[in-house]
Amino acid sequence: MNEVAWFSADTINIVSLAASLVVLLLVVLLWFFMNRASLRANEQIALLEELVDLQKRQNSLLRRLCEANEPETVVETVSETLPEDDLVRMVAER
Q1: Which tops the pLDDT comparison, 88 or 55?
Q2: What is the DSSP letter of 2?
Q3: What is the pLDDT of residue 69?
Q4: Pairwise CA distance, residues 30 & 36, whole Å
Q5: Burial of 51 (C-beta count, 10 Å sphere; 0-12/13-18/19+)
Q6: For 7-52, what is each residue's pLDDT tens digit?
């Protein structure tokens, strides 16, 4: 009766080996794509950090430029320049 079995021990070993190889191949492919995505994300983070650094430099240069070109006269307040009637006209009506 043992000779009539559907699968012999050698067939089961070959199927088990093939299934293991398929699983190994899937794991390697998954690792490859995850590693690739991680590297791209790291590159994007590095570029964004460089942009932030450049923006900080630009802001500091702009601040220095504005301070250098700042007039020395004192700006009058809004209440001194506009009468109160003009302020009422500035309020939006509903």
Answers
A1: 55
A2: G
A3: 87
A4: 10
A5: exposed
A6: 677 788 888 999 999 999 999 999 999 999 999 999 999 999 999 9
CA distance 53 to 46: 11
The pTM for the full model equals 0.47
Q: Count Cβ atoms below 10 Å from residue 82 Cβ, excluding itself.
A: 13
- Please give the biggest Cα pair distance in the chain: 112
Domain boundaries, the chain: 2-90
Tokens of 70: 């700042």
Structure tokens at 2: 């043992």
